[in-house]
Specification:
The protein is mainly beta and 407 residues long. The strands form three sheets. An eight-stranded antiparallel β-barrel has the order 1-2-3-4-5-9-10-11. A hairpin with a 2-residue loop joins strand 14 and strand 15. The longest helix is centred in the first third of the chain and has 21 residues. The radius of gyration is 28 Å and the shape is elongated.
């Protein structure tokens, strides 16, 4: 059992490396969804569930243990997504311990009960299998994920013989053996994450935890290592690109910016896609800012792109198929104005305003290939335009950006 448990994280790591080697698109997604290491793509969550102990003081199945041997547990975790498909994280765990042994392997009837508390802290590797295997997709409603880690556990348990009334506690010495109260642990988690909004998700999962010690239940025979099964449900919140304390005091916003400082949107893989590219759903996509300010509608029809160019118009891409790439820096459901956008980001390059399906988008540049646009988006982010990202246009209208276009 010990060797099998330790192979789990290594096995997952080998799978991850092989998939990354075979799928170069993953590397492209990383560069597009990672504007900065410390200020983007974080995920914090809290879950609660039931914790079941499996060791020497146990002879019941999962369903048999539900009513009397499933105390509550809780877990707080923080994950830093290095890539849309993988990240690193830490978690803190608390759980109650309850287990009953009423029969020995030879059929002898006994009555032992185990109770106590359990605490641990772990670091782990997080893998999003949907993105890892099938590639990044912003509008994916659900994701299968796995966490494999290592950590340290503390416990305080009591084993009671209900017939004689005698009890043994963690840390006590019986004969020549002193029962431990702490040890290393190896957790392995499998779960499903359902997106509730651009940043909020529902997490459901199960964690299998192996304690590299046999003293949790104060019974040293049979199983070499004690184990826990933690079944949970909870909420997680994705955040990033909102804490920009490094902005200098001289970066003042112009007085004519609508509602003061226009908030910026985190264009990471946590954001929803722009579904308005295919049809007008009536619900603003995730990259659109909602501004409470009446604006006169343009004279053009709703689904026709309108381009207004500040200063001189950049050289238009002449691809035969009409496909080109641009760098989007802002979008809103009301007209912001090119002058406002340029003043906000202190831009010297020409900015274009595109009206499509009821939303205003502000872009820079016309590029014949994805890599050139990607390079420009990196330059823009280096200039603190943190929400710059690559978009695709055909015949003047924005279209979904696919992995084929990135090659």
């Amino acid at each position: 059992m010990h060797k099998t448990t330790l192979k789990y994280p290594i096995f997952l790591f080998v799978i991850f490396c092989s998939l990354l080697w075979e799928n170069p698109v993953l590397g492209q997604n990383l560069s597009q969804t990672k504007p900065g290491f410390f200020n983007s793509n974080w995920n914090i969550g809290l879950n609660v569930g039931i914790n079941q102990f499996y060791g020497d003081v146990n002879n019941h199945t999962f369903l048999q243990k539900i009513s009397k041997e499933s105390p509550l547990g809780a877990q707080l975790y923080l994950t830093k997504m290095i890539h849309s498909s993988w990240g690193l994280g830490i978690n803190l765990n608390y759980a109650g311990i309850k287990s009953i042994k009423d029969q020995l392997p030879d059929g002898t009837q006994v009555s032992f009960s185990l109770s106590g508390m359990y605490y641990s802290a772990n670091s782990y590797l997080y893998l999003n299998f949907n993105d890892l295997i099938f590639g990044y997709q912003a509008d994916r409603f659900w994701a299968l994920y796995v966490k494999a880690g290592v950590g340290y556990a503390l416990w305080n348990t009591t084993l009671t013989n209900d017939i004689t009334g005698t009890a043994i506690k963690s840390g006590e010495t019986v004969g020549d053996h002193t029962y431990a109260k702490q040890a290393l642990e190896v957790p392995l988690t499998a779960g499903l994450r359902f997106r509730l909004s651009a940043r909020m998700s529902l997490d459901l999962g199960v964690e299998f935890n192996t304690i590299l010690n046999d003293d949790v239940d104060l019974w040293n025979e049979g199983y070499k290592y004690d184990r826990f099964t933690y079944v949970y449900g909870g909420l997680s919140y994705s955040f990033g690109n909102t804490h920009r304390s490094k902005r200098s005091d001289t970066d003042q916003q112009p007085s004519y910016v609508p509602k003061g400082n226009i908030p910026l949107v985190d264009y990471t893989f946590f954001s929803s896609p722009d579904k308005s590219l295919n049809k007008n759903t009536g619900t603003p996509p995730a990259d659109v800012l909602q501004i409470d300010q009446p604006v006169a509608p343009p004279s053009q029809t709703k689904n026709v792109a309108v381009q207004v160019v500040q200063t001189k118009k950049p050289q238009v891409n002449n691809n035969p198929g009409g496909l080109e790439f641009r760098v989007q820096i802002m979008a809103a459901d009301k007209k912001v104005g090119i002058g406002v956008v340029q003043a906000k980001f202190n831009l010297t390059v020409p900015v274009e305003e595109v009206y499509q399906n009821g939303y205003y988008r502000y872009t820079v540049g016309h590029f014949s290939n994805y890599q050139s646009a990607l390079s420009e988006s990196r330059k823009m982010r280096a200039q603190r335009v943190y929400d710059a990202f690559v978009t695709a246009y055909k015949d003047g209208l924005r279209i979904p950006l696919t992995s084929t276009m990135m090659k």
